[in-house]
Specification:
It is built from nine helices and no strands. The chain has helices spanning about 5-15, 20-35, 40-50, 55-65, 70-90, 100-120, 125-140, 145-155, 165-175. The longest helix is centred in the middle third of the chain and has 21 residues, at about 100-120. It is about 70% helix and about 0% strand. The protein is mainly alpha-helical.
């Protein structure tokens, strides 16, 4: 019964629960072909896409359906997508300066997210701290040591929990002056 949505939902859940993301994604796509307004199938497709390592694509999907995800889910997805952009800088680029485009994109995403979190009064949440420390790394990688050190010092002044890794990133950045 290829059009029996309850059966497809059950199959999608089984694939999802058995860590078969490609099969689950195909099942959710089938559900959405039958009912494009199925909000739960849309949500599941977004989260599976992100778990498969395509957080930027998942974020684009979520943005094309405003209100589908909660603010906190969008924040997490934005943070994950920005982290992907920062990691992509390590990929081969035929034009070496092109790697900065990925870093710049990550910086914009993280800066916007931190500003939104602060406006909401969530500036001291673990997600906000993670975003700031990702920014330290991004600024260092973008050869902007002053911004990296300033952000580290602001975190330190706020008594934020600073990992050894984050302290090392700031130290590396300060050596770039």
């Amino acid at each position: 019964h290829p059009n029996y949505t309850k059966g497809i939902e059950t199959l999608a859940a089984a694939y999802r629960d058995n860590n078969q993301p490609f099969e689950a994604l195909a099942a959710y796509d089938r559900l959405l072909a039958l009912n494009p307004d199925d909000r739960e199938a849309l949500r599941r497709r977004i989260f599976i896409t992100a778990r498969m390592g395509a957080a930027p694509r998942a974020l684009d999907m979520a943005r094309s359906h405003p209100g589908l995800l909660a603010e906190s889910e969008m924040d997490t997805l934005t943070s994950d997508a920005a982290a992907k952009y920062l990691h992509w800088k390590d990929l081969y680029h035929p034009q070496p300066l092109a790697r900065f485009e990925d870093i710049d994109h990550g910086i914009v995403m993280l800066t916007d997210m931190v500003n939104r979190l602060e406006k909401r009064g969530d500036g001291y949440t673990p997600l906000a701290r993670r975003a700031r420390f990702d920014l330290i790394v991004a600024f260092r990688d973008r050869n902007q040591p002053q911004q990296a050190v300033a952000l580290y010092e602001a975190q330190n002044a706020d008594k934020a929990a600073i990992t050894e890794y984050d302290a090392q990133e700031a130290a590396d950045a300060s050596g770039s002056f």
